[in-house]
User: Fold this.
Amino acid sequence: MSGNVPKATTTLDVRGLAARLITAEDTRTDVLPLSRDVDLAVDDAYLVQREVLRAKEERGERIIGGKLGLTSRAKQIDMGVDNPLYGFVTSGMLHDATAPVDLSTLIHPRVEPEIVFVLKEELAGPGITPGDVLDATASVCAGLEIIDSRYQAFKFTLEDAVSDNASSALFVLGNEFVEPSGDLSLLGCLLQVNGKQVATAAGAAVCGDPAQAVAWMANAAGRRGTALKPGWLVLSGGLTAAVPLRSGDCVSADFSRLGGVSVRAR
Amino acid sequence: MHQNQLEEAARRLTEAERSRTPITPLTQTYDGLDIPAAYEVQRAVIAERIAGGARVRGHKVGLTAAVMREQFGVSEPDYGVLLDDMFLLEGSEVPAGSLLAPRVEPELAFVLDRPLGGPGVTVADVLRATAFVTPSLEIIDSRIRNWEITVHDSIADNASSARVVLGGTATDVRDIDPRLLGVVLRRNGEIAETGATGAALGNPVSAVAWLANKLGEFGVTLDEGSVVLPGSCTRALPVSPGDHVRADFGQVGSVGVVFA
Assistant:
């Protein structure tokens, strides 16, 4: 990633904090929230996140898109925040939907269905509107994101989650890429675990409109000097509550207009 | 339960609704209120309303979400009867004090243009018998104190039915995937819940088939022109006086209601 690096508000050991999260991921050992030890501001947290991503890039992973978290108003109210948060997805997170997920590589994974945007043009905020997002979008597709917090019991503050790259782990994409048309907030989604329906949602579950969620990320990342690039994917946020992914589980989602997507765990 | 106890339970529910005074759960008052007895109480409640001039205009299916059935410890949905005096016109207000503790559920309403009589009704029969689908809001209410209901209380209480608002835009069910319409429920302009129409038994068409077959056990047929509410697309939304609620249903339209 390039761009201006905002100054940290305190003299934090950004590298040291990032190293804790990288080690947690590498060793599949959950850790206590960083906010237990240090007073993290949101901008500090995005610096820790950048350091985590830098470590991934040093290992040969490439940033291939963005992702949003805390996009549901109910979750924001639970955590006492007014905004979602964003992170980035790397080439190492793209999982082949035909292969099972190896649970031994993860700590306590959960799955959530998402509408994924594929960008054809750059989105450099601030000032990006949902209309700009749709104009810059080549297609949208169905996705299942496998999230995995590095924190014990998925307990964290917004700043902790930002540092942890929005609990990123893996994601799979559906096979149907359609041009965005109509109102994405009214796209329906059914979520099934092992053939049993567990949740339903509409696109409006993410920030009222998935295009609004992507615009928020473009603007928030833009203020930190990062633009969303042509060819990037943007995972616009979980439509339903995340469901645990256990050994032998098959999780699938059906979307109006976008078809289905599924993932299974070994 | 003895016949006169069933009749007494029905009278309590009717009086609770009339006087807007909730009652203690029937299951605390009567031993042996099992599911068949609960439906008998429901039939007695409805018979009294019909004797008072009400007409049957449709049915509702409840407990269509697996999570609700697990919560109530039952394996199948339940149903209630929709009478003509429960239907409100969109744009009119639900008068203050007319209900006890109302909640709103968005549903894809089915309107039949030919009768459906179970047993043996298939999903194909339902698709053929459906004139159109239309967005609706079901306003549920419990005559039982603080919604302290078991499934038996709810069935006896006509599956907590209260009011229905139909949206008035008609869509041919053959032109849509009836499982995958996104549903956004707003209270006072703010998104309160989202869901999809498949929340009702995986497919609302299946819910209508289930209803036709269940009613068939009692020799009841869904008439031509019947409205069937196949189950909620979201959790039930509690409302207070002054609230307005609106539901948008994918490409099939929207419907709203105001609580005075």
